[in-house]
Amino acid sequence: MADDRKKLSMTLGESLRQQGVSRRGFLKYCAATASMMALPPTMVPAIAQALEKAKRPSVIWLSFQECTGCTESLTRSHSPSVENLIFDHISLDYHHTLQVASGDAAEAAREAAMHENEGKYIVVVDGSIPLANPGYSSIAGISNLQMLEETVAGAAAVVAVGSCAAFGGLPHANPNPTGAVSVGEIVKDKPVVNVSGCPPIPTVITGVLAHFLTFGSLPELDALGRPMVFFGQSIHDRCYRRPFYDKGLFAETFDDEGARKGWCLFRLGCKGPMTYNACATAKWNQGTSWPVESGHGCLGCSEPDFWDAGGFYNALSIPDSDLTRKTGYVVGAGVALGAAAGALNRSTRAKAAAKHETVTIDDLDKKS
Ligand code: SF4
Ligand code: SF4
Question: Where are the transmembrane segments (predicted)?
């Protein structure tokens, strides 16, 4: 315990030197961190200076209504590796799935981390919070709502990891039997960053934590509370199939000639035009590939209400919560859709929104 306290009081620079990490190796890590956070190489000395002085922040990870996919995603992160992240750069003091302690000892670890790091620790949450009945999801006899409120009270910041924590996700899907809500609907008096995705990209989770560690603050956020550096552009904006979309060349089935030639998957249900995430650039599995590259359309997993967006294989099925913004995007892509720009009439949108129907390419092609 005394050793643990000593480790926590050391700066990161001291800790790395103690572990025999060379100055060169440290700067290499800083360069990798800058690149992950999409910062220019000129920022590397500033990052090195900040990290040199940084103390390992305490992290309390709370898992509520979720499938553990977000933790699975993080434990497959590679840059920096999760071992690096957990053991060298943060102090992961509570995590149901990864911790050895259980029962009273586990809860005691959470309470100790809260008291010893008052005002400084980070709370990571995956999963949504059921409000319909506290008994729907509880840990150690404590409801998710109570655990969230008491843990967040002394936190510096909250990271809502995954679409369930960020937007309610699958538990929130119609008819939302548990009354699931997002973290942001409960926590109003602390900075909250949404790292959405089902699951989120591991480098995005670690990138947000690295940003906090480096600058002592959360990165710039978009209108949905997501870090701009990773969610600032749509999947469609960065998709390598985009030239085919712009030329109006679409695969009609998963095994036709268009699919074999790598044409755009829009008509097979790709939600890339209305989905903001870094998959096309960060990729998955250590940068190996991503869904659209492997031949499947984007499901829109990082957007609110994506489970209620109609069929995954229907072109442009849209959650009614955001119909205007998303159809507006398609109207803007008039070149690709031929006559679509002038065709999407108000009544089509209004009717679809009212009935929560899919808006298809054919609908877009109809004249007003
Ligand atoms: S619709 Fe999908 S496959 Fe086509 S260019 Fe956009 S993101 Fe890529
Ligand atoms: S490609 Fe789309 S559905 Fe797939 S992980 Fe990325 S954002 Fe989610």
Answer: none
Atom of ligand 1 nearest to the CA of 264: 4
What are the two backbone dihedrals, phi and then psi, of residue 299, each rounded to the nearest 5 degrees?
A: -90, -5
Consecutive H or E run containing 145: helix 144-152
Which of 237, 252, 266 to mutate to test ligand 1, by most ligand atoms within 8 A of the CB atom? Answer: 266
Identical fold between 56-227 and 234-344:
no
Is the whole-model pTM more than 0.90? no
Architecture of domain 56-227: 3-Layer(aba) Sandwich (3.40)
CA angle at 350 for the pair 347 and 353, rounded to the nearest 5°: 145
Indicate whether residue 239 lines ligand 2 (CB < 6 A). no
For ligand 2, say whether the CB of 299 is within 6 Å of any of its atoms.
Answer: yes
Give tens-digit pLDDT for 173-218.
999 999 999 999 999 999 999 999 999 988 888 888 878 878 888 8
Domain ranges, ordered by start, for the chain: 1-54, 56-227, 234-344
291 CA to centre of ligand 2 in angstroms: 7
> Which fold does the domain 234-344 belong to in CATH?
Cytochrome-c3 Hydrogenase; Chain A, domain 2 (4.10.480)
The answer on whether 30 is annotated among ligand-binding residues is: no
**Per residue in 295-349, pLDDT tens?**
999 999 999 999 998 889 988 654 444 444 444 444 333 333 332 322 333 344 3
Span from the CA of 312 to the centroid of ligand 1 (angstroms): 14
For residue 148, count other CB atoms closer than 10 A to its CB. Answer: 22
